[in-house]
Amino acid sequence: MVPLSLLDLFTPVVPEKRLHPHFNRLISSTDWDIREVLSDWLVDFVDRDGKFVQEFQLTFNSCWWELYLFAVLKSLGWSVDFSHAAPDFVIADATLTIEAVVSNPSDGSPPDWLKSLRDVSDPRDVEPRWLETLARLYNSLDGKRAIYERRYSAMPHVEGKPFILAIHNFSTPDSFQLGDVAMQRLLYDLEKRETFLKNGKVALPLGIFDRPEYRDVSAVMYSSVATYGKVRALGRSNADLCFQAIRIRNNVEMLPIFGTKADYQESLRDGLRIFHNPNASRPLPFGLFEVPDVREFRLIDGEMYTTCHPDGDLCMRQVIRASPG
């Protein structure tokens, strides 16, 4: 095992034609601030199988999400025990385990690096995007749930501890605009629809926290905004960047935000959600995170309760470069 901070994440180790488009963008000269933030995230991260750098350069999204989660855990003051091969994060301080997963576009769908204005949802007709997102989120979560049941649950360092599935939504080109509506439907099904149709044909379940096979999942951690835009907001570059965001204050008041880099503020954890499973065999303590920028959801007697950021919870954000360079 090698601390990743001692490795070179940014020098290509695979043939150029195989490099992920996001990685090619990352190593461009204009993105020095992105590399700076990622280098901070890397500190104390351990590459347990010696493959992380290669996977980051080939597949990108899953490794990016894993690094982001590690940065979040460090910001909470939690220590990760890297002596175990799985799950991804074993947290000694909080006595819990976390497995990371991403929801990527389906085969044949536009990849997230080819997004254009045509891929941005019309807010008046967002339902098709939510349905597409539901299918991708379900497939990713259920695959990891099955791995936990088959492999992780009997591991001595996992057994008896709360287990979190941490997922990022990259499933559509405009996933950063779609918030957490699809995830709320998938986990809780407050509208009592019971199922939805994948591609208009295959029925998949809603309210999966009510299903017995999900009792081992204590909570789902979710974000759709831990993207390039997140690191743009955190970086030191003075590039001409315009930020457009929406926050929701007290769960009802929509706060549109428009500003330049100099005016815009966003924390590392802004946009992160914790959805508690009301039927979990090993519940995650509500309020465990104790920070305003991590929003927690729980269901009690059919009613949803959430924590609220005093300045509004980040729901979506996009970044537009005003000039080249």
Explain the layout of strands and helices.
Elements: E1 2-3, H1 21-26, H2 32-42, E2 46-47, H3 52-58, H4 61-75, E3 89-91, E4 96-103, H5 127-152, E5 163-169, H6 181-188, E6 195-198, E7 202-205, E8 219-223, H7 228-234, E9 241-249, E10 253-260, E11 272-276, E12 294-300, E13 303-306, E14 313-321
Parallel strand pairs: 4-5, 5-8, 11-12
Antiparallel strand pairs: 1-2, 3-4, 6-7, 8-11, 9-10, 9-14, 12-13
Helix pairs in contact: 2-4, 2-7, 5-6
Give a structural overview.
The chain is of the alpha+beta class and 325 residues long. It has one domain. The protein is 25% helix and 24% strand. The chain has seven helices and 14 strands. A seven-stranded mixed β-sheet has the order 3-4-5-8-11-12-13, sandwiched between helices. A three-stranded antiparallel β-sheet has the order 10-9-14, with helices on one face. A two-stranded antiparallel sheet has the order 1-2. Helix 2 crosses helix 7 and helix 5 crosses helix 6. The chain is globular. The two termini are 38 Å apart.
